[in-house]
């Protein structure tokens, strides 16, 4: 690239084109005078079902560099507390730790958490997620979060004293009962016997004794990171809203809601029943809040801190975010909107890439995203689009680069 003030290779031209208002493709947002290359931050979530957040960043970068080879690019995969949270932490420099824990059906599974110093990132789906169920198999009444408790214990054993518990993608609706049991709680029926695993058997719960919980928890900060704020019970609760996704019939939903209510009565913490996040991931949010003394925070907010998003944003002239589907759910605590809002607060323009786009330009603008580029613009057939997501994402990023950096 050429250099010189006001020429195509200069900081002025690079940053002006980086900050182009791509919604109309004509007018630069701002001008800059300092001499250094335009800096792009790729801060995208996974494309669920096709690409991890790490893979998304790699393919976007490849597409950008196919058009502007010398572009300064920094990648920081992000997550909102659900699937992909541990991968995002590892990409940001955390160490990947693998342990064998109890899966949602009671059989052993391999699960991963992330550790850096005395901070751990634990993703409950790694131990208790739908991914561990055979295709077409659900266990809405009996699936357990016991393995998530084992994963937390492994983090404690490794020296963690701050644990971020990311929840989402669970196969369970047991209110976190299994998790608490794995950490030393005793949940007993009227005859003094331990209740069976799962949410359904909680209907027979008589007493909950938390006195045996791992004593290290008292000196550990547990942060419940979630993108949902549902209560534990009722029409917006864990069973009613998320139970059907886990195979629960209407009868099962009613039974699970009643059983979770009994669980809350036994734990004696009614205040946490309606607390934001209590209904997250089959009610594990309630178990974390009431049993572990966790603090609820929006997942994207927590992950920004853990991943070092703020300093990365300070180094950027343009941010590219995205996820598999930009739709109404994106507007409610999902990573791309969190990224866009943080960037807008610093006056940094944001573009997005996605597999499918279901938001109007006006809605995108209101969320802080100047323009979104969808893979379905290149391949409208959704199954083919998902199957060829990597190639299509690189091609889409190349289109974005030509629109943004070439005058």
From TrEMBL:
Keyword Kinase: yes
Domain of life: Bacteria
GO molecular function: kinase activity
Annotated stretches, region: Disordered: 1-34
Basic and acidic residues bias: start-end ranges: 10-29
Keywords of the record: Kinase, Transferase
Gene3D superfamilies xref list: Glycerate kinase, domain 1 (3.40.50.10350), Glycerate kinase, domain 2 (3.90.1510.10)
InterPro entries: Glyc_kinase_flavodox-like_fold (IPR018193), Glycerate_kinase (IPR004381), Glycerate_kinase_RE-like (IPR018197), Glycerate_kinase_sf (IPR036129)
Family under the similarity heading: Belongs to the glycerate kinase type-1 family.
Name of the protein this chain belongs to: Glycerate kinase
Naturally occurring in which organism (per UniProt): Actinacidiphila acidipaludis
């Amino acid at each position: 690239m050429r250099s010189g003030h006001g020429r195509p290779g200069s900081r002025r031209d690079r940053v002006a084109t980086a900050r182009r208002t791509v919604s109309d493709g004509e007018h630069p947002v701002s001008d800059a005078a300092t001499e250094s290359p335009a800096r792009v931050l790729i801060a995208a979530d996974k494309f669920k079902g096709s690409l991890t957040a790490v893979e998304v960043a790699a393919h976007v970068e490849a597409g950008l560099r196919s058009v502007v080879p010398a572009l300064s690019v920094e990648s920081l995969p992000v997550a909102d507390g659900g699937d992909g949270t541990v991968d995002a932490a590892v990409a940001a420099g955390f160490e990947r730790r693998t342990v064998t824990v109890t899966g949602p059906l009671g059989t052993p599974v391999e699960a991963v958490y992330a550790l850096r110093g005395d901070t751990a990132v634990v993703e409950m789906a790694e131990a208790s997620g739908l991914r561990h169920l055979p295709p077409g198999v659900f266990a809405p009444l009996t699936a357990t979060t016991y393995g998530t408790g084992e994963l937390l214990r492994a983090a404690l054993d490794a020296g963690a004293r701050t644990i971020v518990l990311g929840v989402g993608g669970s196969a369970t609706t047991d209110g976190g009962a299994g998790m608490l049991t794995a950490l030393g709680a005793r949940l007993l029926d009227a005859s003094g016997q331990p209740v069976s695993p799962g949410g359904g058997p909680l209907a027979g719960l008589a007493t909950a004794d938390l006195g045996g919980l791992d004593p290290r928890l008292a000196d550990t900060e547990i942060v419940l990171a979630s993108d949902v704020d549902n209560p534990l019970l009722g029409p917006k609760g864990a069973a009613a809203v998320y139970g059907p996704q886990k195979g629960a019939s209407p009868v099962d939903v009613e039974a699970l809601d009643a059983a979770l209510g009994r669980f809350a009565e036994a734990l004696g913490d009614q205040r946490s029943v309606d607390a934001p996040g209590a209904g997250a991931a089959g009610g594990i949010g309630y178990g974390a809040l009431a049993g572990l003394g966790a603090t609820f925070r929006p997942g994207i907010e927590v992950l920004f801190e853990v991943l070092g998003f703020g300093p990365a944003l300070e180094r950027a002239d343009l941010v590219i975010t995205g996820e598999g589907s930009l739709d109404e759910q994106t507007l409610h605590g999902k990573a791309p909107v969190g990224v866009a809002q943080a960037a807008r607060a610093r006056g940094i323009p944001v573009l997005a890439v996605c597999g499918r786009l279901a938001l109007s330009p006006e809605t995108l603008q209101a969320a802080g995203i100047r323009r979104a580029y969808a893979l379905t613009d290149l391949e409208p057939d959704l199954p083919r689009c998902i199957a060829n997501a990597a190639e299509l994402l690189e091609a889409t990023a190349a289109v974005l680069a030509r629109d943004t950096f070439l005058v």
